[in-house]
């Protein structure tokens, strides 16, 4: 049976080796040497030092034309050359969530140009968003990125660009975890 819910397990073992963990804002997570991504199940034996759970869902905040552009150029995860990754858990403020959906969309896209910015870095950088706010997790989103070592600078520019937008004024906790495939 396929699952759309996954555990990101930080601990002593895993497919991904942690090379850096930085708290951008808010409380950090305990430093770990490895990360594994597993289908969510109470039977998972590798619970590690911490586990973050998230689920995949439909694309949100994107209008039809934006979604079509994304689908046309985005890469799949798991490409053999994409040996670098980043897990960026994010929690937004209650002020963000108190906004109506159209107000969030206006900040997200009309003012911050989130989708447009991301399109500039496709297909080099693959991305998947995991939602966790609705399942009682300490973050609202777990954003997973994969890219080849030669695209590392592009990734840095992408992250810097997004953090300079109005949308990021609503982020109250963010951890930047960089990884390489072990």
Layout of helices and strands, plus pairs?
Blueprint: E1 5-11, E2 16-25, E3 34-39, E4 50-55, H1 64-73, E5 84-92, H2 94-98, H3 101-111, H4 114-119, E6 126-131, E7 141-147, H5 152-163, E8 171-181
Antiparallel strand pairs: 1-3, 1-4, 2-3, 2-8, 5-7, 5-8, 6-7
Describe this structure in words.
Strand 2 (16-25) and strand 3 form a beta hairpin. The protein has one domain (5-181): Alpha-Beta Plaits (2-Layer Sandwich), CATH 3.30.70.3420. The protein has 5 helices and 8 strands; from the N terminus they run ββββαβαααββαβ. The protein has helices at 64-73, 94-98, 101-111, 114-119, 152-163; strands spanning 5-11, 16-25, 34-39, 50-55, 84-92, 126-131, 141-147, 171-181. It has 182 residues and is of the alpha+beta class. Strands 4-1-3-2-8-5-7-6 form an 8-stranded antiparallel β-sheet.
Which structural class should the secondary elements be placed in?
alpha+beta
Largest sheet: 8 strands, antiparallel
SSE order, as H and E? EEEEHEHHHEEHE
Mind telling me the CATH class? Answer: Alpha Beta
Could you say what the CATH topology is called?
Alpha-Beta Plaits
Strand elements, count: 8
Output the number of helix runs. 5
Strand ordering within the main sheet: 4-1-3-2-8-5-7-6
Q: Regions with pLDDT < 50 over 5+ consecutive residues? A: none
Classify the helix fraction into a percent range. Answer: 10-25%
